[in-house]
Structures are given as C-alpha cells and as structure tokens.
Amino acid sequence: MSDRAQEPILSARNLVKRYGRVTALNNADFDLYPGEVLAVIGDNGAGKSTLIKAISGAVIPDEGEIRLNGQPVQFTSPMQARAAGIETVYQTLALSPALSISDNMFLGREIRKKGMLGKVFRMLDRPEMERYSREKLSDLGLMTIQNIGQAVETLSGGQRQGVAVARAAAFAAKVIIMDEPTAALGVKESGRVLELIRDVKKRGLPIVLISHNMPHVFEVADRVHIHRLGRRIAVVDPKQMSASDAVAIMTGAMKPQELAAA
Amino acid sequence: MSEQTLAAGESERPSFDEHERTFLQKIQHFLHSNPAAVPLIVLVVSTIVFAFIIGPRFYSAFTLTLILQQVAITGIVSAGQTLVILTAGIDLSVGAMMVLSSVVMGQCAMHYGFPGPIAVLAGLAVGTLCGVINGLLVAFVRLPPFIVTLGTWSIYGAATFIYSGNETVRSQDIDATAPILHFFGQSFRIGGAVFTYGVVLMVVIAAILWYALNHTAWGRHLYAVGDDKDASLLSGIRVSRVLISVYAVAGLICAVAGWTLIGRIGSVSPQAGQLENINAITAVVIGGTSLFGGRGSILGTLFGALIVGVFSLGLRLVGTDPQWTQLTVGALIIVAVATDQWIRKVST
Hints:
Chain B: The chain crosses the membrane at residues 36-54, 85-106, 118-140, 146-164, 190-213, 242-262, 298-318. The complex is a heterodimer. By secondary structure, chain A is of the alpha/beta class.
C-alpha cells in the first residue's frame, strides 16, 4: 500500500526519552507515509505512548529528531503540534460533556461573528460553527446525530468517539493520531469507529492508530509498527503476517526475520 | 470477534442510533438542557402560593419590587459567585471583598479627599485586585479554591477592620462630600413599583454575564474548564488564564456590590455583609448551578436569589418566626442539590 518511493510525511529518528533511571524511548524510529493507516502496537511499558506523546507534542524528547514533511520540528506543547496540522484523538477524548457538539468541535478555536459584533462584543458565530460541524459530521456519515446543539454527555460512547474523530478530521491538515479509539467500546460500536477510520483515510489523511486490539489493528492498518523495549523492532505488513506472529514479535517470543525497510 | 466487527462494519454505515426515552427521562433531559427551569418554576409557584395566602398585601407592585430591592446586593454578589462555581470552584471571600471595597471607597472619599468618582474607581480596583490574588493562588499555586478563599476571607475581612479602624462613615457625611457613593440606593417609581438603581444594576450585570457565558468563547471556556479541566487543557484552552479572569471578574462584581451596599445601608460600615458569602452560595445553589462545575446559569442564580427573597418577605408577612425562613431556605438548598445530582445522571 504505502509506496516506499514516497517521502514519509512524519518521521522520527533516534528518539530518546528517559524518566529518571527508566528509559522510555531508546533510539526509537518512526515513519508515517501519506495516506496510510499505521498501527502502533507494543506491550504495556514498551514506550509506545511516550513515542506518540513525543510526536504529538505532549512530551519533549531528550534526543533525536522529528521531521514533518521533511522539515525538522520541535514541539513543546500539544498546541504547537496542532498548529502544525497534527491532531490527536485522546483516549479520554478531551470533550467537554456539558457543552454541545458544535461547541466541542470548536473548543479553543471558536469562530467569531464578522464586524462590530465579533470584534467589540466578541460574539460567537454559532450558525457558522453549527453549519461547519454538521458538514463535518455528515462527511463521516454521522448525521444520525440529529441535534448539533445537544450536549455531548447525552451521546453514547461511540457517538462521542465519532465527535472527537470528526473534530480531529475537521482541523487536521496533515496527520491524525488516535489513541485506543475502540478501547472503551462494545463490538458493534467498535465496528463503526473502524469504519470511521476508513472514511478519514479515504479523504487522504494519514492516521496513526495506537491499539491493543489485534483484530482491530489487522482490520484497518496498512502497516504495523511494532514497539518493544523503547524502540521500533519491526514494521510488518498485516496482509502477510498473522496477528499471533505480530504478538510474538511484540512480546519477544519471536525474532523479526527482517526489519521491513523503513 | 474479528468476523463480527467486519460484518458490522460492512453491513451499515456508522449510524449511532438514538433509543426511545421514557417520560421521566424526557423531563430529566429537558431540565438538563434548561438548568434555570427548576428555580423558575419554584419562584413562580412560591409567589403564587404566597399571593393566595397573604392576598393583595403581598401581590402588589410595591411589595414585589420591595423583594427586588432586598435581594439586589445578594443578587449581584451571587452573579460573581456563579462564575466561580461554574469553574468547579467556590469563593468564600466574596462578602469580605465587597465590604473591603466599600470601605476603600469611603476612606478615599472622606479621609483622603478624593473626588467621588475616583474613590469609586479605587474601590473597584481593590476588589478586582483581591479577585486576581484569589485567581493566582488557585491557578498557579494550585490550591483548592475552598482553602484559598477561606484564607483570603479572613485576610480581606481583617484588612477591612485594620484599615478602617473599625470606624463607620456616617450617611450625612457621604451626602455632603461624595453623593455618588449613594447612587445605587436612589430609587424611582413606575406606578406603585419602586425600583432602586441597585435593582437595575443587578439586572444589567446578570444580562451582561448571560451574554458573556452563552455567546463568547470566554463563556464556553469557563463551562469547559468547570466540566473537565484536563480535557480543556488538551483542547487548547488556557485554563490558568480563564481561572484568573473568573476570580478577577468576581472580585470586580463584589466591589460593585460594595458600592451598591453603601447606597442600600446609607453608611460605610466594616460590620456590614458578614454573611454575604453564605447568602451568595445559597442563591447560586438554589438557582440550580452545580457545585461540581460546568453546569448552571446566571438566570438560575437570579431566580435563586429571588426565591430566597420571596420566602423571607412572604413568611414575615404571614407572621411566622423568622427561623422558619432559615429552615425553609435550608430545605431548598438540599432539594436543589439533590435535583442537580439527579439531572447529572443523564447519559447514554
């Protein structure tokens, strides 16, 4: 799927991050190619969440280099990564339950009305925000959510995930990172979220998917990045490898035959 | 399991369908989206009940506007308190900030000989500064708001007495040198209705805050911070800035209440308004704003303050022991919080 001739849109080389005596990242590499779904798997404590935090700006690596579109970048906060076009769907979703769907979509980047009302009275442009939110939700086939003004806490777990994904997809210029998007969901809702991931991919955005759920990973991923002991130990093609072999590599029970060309 | 999810994914587009609601859930949902509905209903019903019991003596323009005059100070202070409580905080120092500001206004006008308007500005500045101190302690030192304002309540209260030397400025002196301090105590009549400018001020402040909470990004951020601080941070809200601004605005509003207080009681007294923090929290809670933050409205608070006013005056006209008012208000607080808990359970 991913064309090796292409330049990675997001890459990292030799990332190191230490917490006291613990080395969370030990010369970790990372590559994400345009238009692909890259799954990142790894045992608990393997350092995959530190890796993801490093590329989403939540953690500043001690050493190493991150490049976005070939340009070196140094994020010191998630806001900077966001401004650079990298959106993250956090496991906790980072939604505000009491606010409406459209208020949540625009949280922290609200649109103000034009002219006096916006400049002097700082009035929000609700109709525009609602129109845009509705459009983005429809793009992802989520318009069964009837009322864009309803509070997020009245939605089901899957619907909330949908809103968080739609928010990321609406504002991500380059990359979407999704942290365990199906962890809290039942089988049926998980299936719908996987469908959402495919929809986002169809629109050309590359996705980094962190998941513990092997069936989900093997269902949607184009490539699987296997993380072990703080570094990338292998990148495998899910069509040519079984989930149990991937788990064997992940846990160290099996040696990766060949590190797929990065 | 993998086949199952595949099948679910292929057979249908992502459609997260709504399920049917029972009647009780519908009520719950309605109250959830209209937090001011409960206090409004209680206000209307209690007014009607008192009108039936007491008759025209209660149900007259004069009496009803008298209630407004009596709740003006609490109404203003509790508007500021609402902002703080919406961020899942609490401000125990509101009454102390109010009295300190009023004392500063009095001292500036009487002892330093400043012109009235300058004295007022000095008082407003001191109130805002007190609020900023609260905000800095909450946002940067990361102390619980209860502890911060428990401390500053004592500090601002003591500062008031030390600064004023426990001295009261007499009403006649104020009229002679700085009548502007009495501005919000002046009244005007429309028919039998008597309004003070303090009542008008309360309504104007509530209207401004209603607008700010519902139609500006600041207001949305305030709700989001109260709802879930971590989520707000991840969404790119500058939480510390929101918190400091909220406590600062609360301080400013309390200073405005201090100005109104001078008009209401005539003199400047460091002894005034000792229970105002409790009155304000009571109005906010009865008004349906959740102490856990993120839920509530300024309109609800206004209704909450009015409910207390209706019960106080109504029970006094009925001729009961004033303790019955305290008892009723206490019961209302408990019912209000219980209702909030129930409404909060809305999910899925």
